[in-house]
Amino acid sequence: MDWKIHGHDWAVQMLSKHASGHNLRHAYLFIGPQGVGRRTLALRFAQALNCTAPPEVGQFCDECRPCLQIRAMQHPDLSLLVPEEGHKDVLIDQIRSLQHTLALAPYSAAYRIALLLDFQRTTKQGMNALLKTLEEPQDKVVLLLTANALESLLPTIVSRC
User: With contact defined as beta carbons under 8 Å apart, do 16 and 56 qualify?
Assistant: First the structure.
């Protein structure tokens, strides 16, 4: 299966292996400049984790209901974290709300996925609040963080992904 990701073959191979159940981690950090495909790669990984009709282990069909919903970022077990309208940063209250959601078992998929886009836009208080979740992850929860550079994140966030 082609993940339709160009120039990141090593990442696709690694994530496909992790999605097949080999060494699945609780948090992944996708680093790179805007437009390089961080969000797309994270969404493809979420599809591989929750696809109900994968053509082979660690892949996704891109046609089943979960795959289509995740691609549209409308799956009930996919939580999207971006700054609220009118704010430039992700606030600590948003992190706390996300943590409450992640404490619940997946509704309809194998995994509850949290997609934290442009995590460098999170306040330091928000990043610190997420540390508890990164240190003691819930079962069946995978966090996917994207950021433009490692230096824009707290070192404790980077070390736990």
Answer: no
Residue 20: Cβ-neighbour burial (10 angstroms; 0-12, 13-18, 19+): middle
Number of separate helices (H) and strands (E) present in the chain: 6, 4
Do 38 and 29 contact (CB within 8 A), yes or no?
no
**Tens of pLDDT, residues 76-134:** 999 999 999 999 999 999 999 999 999 999 999 999 999 999 999 999 999 999 998 99
Q: Is 102 helix (H, G, I), strand (E, B) or coil?
A: helix
Question: In CATH, which superfamily holds the domain spanning 9-159?
Answer: P-loop containing nucleotide triphosphate hydrolases (3.40.50.300)
pTM exceeds 0.90 for this model: yes
